[in-house]
Design a protein that fits this description.
This protein has about 170 residues and is α+β, with helices and mostly antiparallel strands. The protein has 6 helices and 4 strands, in the order αααβααββαβ.
Length: about 170
Amino acid sequence: MGYQPPYYQGHFEARGFERLADFEAWALWREAFQAQDRLLRLARRVERHPALRIRPADLGRFERELQIFFRLYSGAFADHWGFEAPSWDEFRFIAADLRHVLRANMALIAEWNAEPVGFVLGIPDLYAILPKATRGRLTPRFFVELGLNWRRLDQARVMIAGVLPAFRRH
C-alpha cells in the first residue's frame, strides 16, 4: 500500500471528495510478538492443530503455486468492499514481477486437511538495504550497494494475507 501524508486529506476534501473506507496497516516486530505470551500461546495452539499445515510455497513449481494463490486471493477477498478479482492473465502479469524478489519462506500457504485455505505473501523490505547516500537516484553505486546488501536482508513486508471465508474461525 502506498503512503500518503496526512495533509493530503485536506487537499482531497477541498475538491469535494470524502472518505468511503479506511484501510489499516500494522507493524509487527518479532520481539513484540514473542513478548506477548498470550499471542504466542495462541499461535502455538493453532500450530498444533492436526488439520492445519503451514508450508512455504514451492518456487520450483511456480505456475502450480501461482494457481493456488490466485484461487485463494480471489476467494478470500470476494466479500471485501471494493474488491474486483483480477483475471488470470492480470494475476500472472503481476506475479511475474514479484517472482524476481520472492523468497519461499515469505510466501506461505495454510492448508486445512491438505486443502489450501489461506496464504501470506511477503517480500523482502528493500527499504532496509537501499543505500541512503544516493537520495533516490538510480546510479551505478545504487545497484552495486543493493546487490551487496541483498543477501544480508533480514526484514520483510507482508503485502497481503487472506483466508477463505469458511475457514476464518479456524
